[in-house]
Amino acid sequence: MTLDFSTLLPYSGVIIEGLVTTLWLTVVTTFAGIALAIVVAYVRDLESGIMSRLLGGYVEVVRNTPFIVQLFFLFFGLPALGIPISAPVAALVAMVLNLGAYTAEILRAGIDSTARGQHEAARALGLSRLQSYRHVVLVPAFSRVYPSLISQCIIVMLGSAVVSQISVFDLTYAANFIQSRNFRGFEVYLVVTLIYLLLAVGMRRSFELVGRRLFAFRQGGSA
Amino acid sequence: MFAFTKHRFYRQALLALCCTVVTGLAAVSAQASDLATIEERGTLRVAVPQDFPPFGSVGTDLQPQGYDIDMAHYLADQMEVDLELVAVTSANRIPFLQTDKVDLVISSLGKNPERAAVIDFTDAYAPFFLGVFGTPEAAMIDDADGLSGKTIGVTRGSVEDMELSELAPSDTTVQRFEDNATTISAFLSGQVDYIATGNVVAAQIAERNAERAPTMVFRIKNSPCYIGLSQGNTALKDKVNALIEQAKQDGSLEAMSQKWFHTALPDDLSN
To answer: What pLDDT, in 10s, does the model give residues A32-71?
Structure first.
């Protein structure tokens, strides 16, 4: 068998369509997932009421069940309960919930490593609770766990391949689609693998760039 | 060691050659049973599937059951002979006929030129088609243009996927799923209101989910099943054709369709 990449040319539009879907799913998930994680970590760390317990339950459920099962539950389960949900929305919700739960735990590790006294000192100096949380707790916590955070976001991007199972037209769906048409599996998956690799490397680079700006205070310091 | 291996190889080759020749002779000498032989014997031997519901499967009582089995019973009853069911797979059903191990093959057999070169076919007796299926309330769709604006679930890479992608208008949304089970789930959960699939799969869904039984609204491709018999067996072929016609008239085929496919016979079979 010889490699013949020219058979992929008629399908370049399909690959681009898949790539665009994967990209927007990843970008929206990254922002929404981290935002969710901040809220969850905040509540779980500073409150101890019913809300904190509920969010703890959410984190445990998501972290201890397979992503594809969560996806199928949303896609097939919700309509059965009378809540209509389209395939891309189900995929997005599943990805955000997934990233949110994992990142909340990563963040908590960073938050726990900030001595409680610092928070209290900031409050004593007249910062409001939110101000103190933001500047004294959150930003240093982020800077400590930033490498884990990058990895988690990349894992979710790569894991998004699974959403092709519920007919979302992402990059993997495009690959499966082409492969079922021209039977050139090796060529298709080779190209798509390279695209995923570039995406992952690109994401890491962008994160690191943003990190240098955000955590400039650590430059030359302990980082 | 080497000599021994070589020796064994020749012996095996010789043995294989002998077997081939003997089997070949047996095949040539196998004289197809004609109608007179069957009546004299008092038994109709029919090849049926046992792994392809609703055409043929094994029931909870370990007896074969299905559309093809009912058809075999109908023919034997009408010919007033006993029935002997022979379970075959899709790969060996034609060899069983060629070597006169059975008189008829009633095994969801489709017609194609390769098969027609070696065996004969009667008239069509069972529906087999690919179609677009909707909910029980869905309206019929007359032509491919009627699919416009609809969202249709299909199993990626299947024949129905290829056919549907070919003929559906550009504003039809085709949602492709990984396998049949996921496509069916998408239909049953209400994620899609239409699916493209075969009538066999549709019948299996209908069997378990009467309230959302897939109803054919548009036929993509039709390839009904025929009864196979050995070539030149004219008397038997005429007899079976007459009985198929009779089964259409007396409602037996329709009843079998309702029983096994939970739907009426398509027009081309019901006359």
So the answer is: 999 999 999 989 887 778 999 999 999 999 999 999 999 9
Q: Which domains does chain B possess? A: 32-128+224-265 (3.40.190.10), 129-222 (3.40.190.10)
Interstrand relation of B129-134 and B104-110 (parallel, antiparallel or unpaired): unpaired
Q: Is the pLDDT of residue A158 over 90?
A: yes
Tokens of A2: 């010889």
Q: Is the minimum CB–CB distance between B160 and chain A shorter than 8 Å?
A: no
**B197, containing H or E segment:** strand B194-198
Q: CA-CA distances (angstroms) from residue A136 to A110, A129, B98?
A: 12, 10, 86
Q: Are B76 and B227 in contact (CB under 8 A)?
A: no
CA distance B50 to chain A (A): 30
Question: Hey, what are B201's tokens?
Answer: 């799969």
**Regarding predicted confidence, which is higher, B20 or A103?**
A103
**Separation of alpha carbons A204 and B165, rounded Å:** 38
If 0-12 CB within 10 Å is exposed, 13-18 middle and 19+ buried, where does residue B269 land? buried
- The full length of chain B comes to 271
| Interface residue B153 vs chain A (CB under 8 A) | yes
Rg (alpha carbons) of chain B, rounded to whole number: 22
Q: Check whether the bond before B54 is cis (ω within 30° of 0).
A: yes
Q: Are strands B56-58 and B129-134 parallel, antiparallel or unpaired?
A: unpaired
Residue B153, H or E segment? strand B151-155
Q: Which CATH architecture has domain A11-217?
A: Orthogonal Bundle (1.10)
CA distances from B167 to A179, B100, B191 (A): 20, 43, 22
Beta strands B194-198 and B151-155 are parallel
Judged by a CB distance cut-off of 8 A, whether residue A166 touches chain B is yes
Q: What is the ipTM of this complex?
A: 0.76
- Give the closest residue to A171 by CA, choosing from A189, A149, A153: A189
Chain A residues with beta carbon closer than 8 angstroms to that of B163:
none
Find where tokens 């879907």 sit.
A21
Mutation pick from A69, A73, A167, A182 vs chain B, by most beta carbons of B within 10 Å, is A167
Q: State how far Cα B111 lies from the chain centre.
A: 10
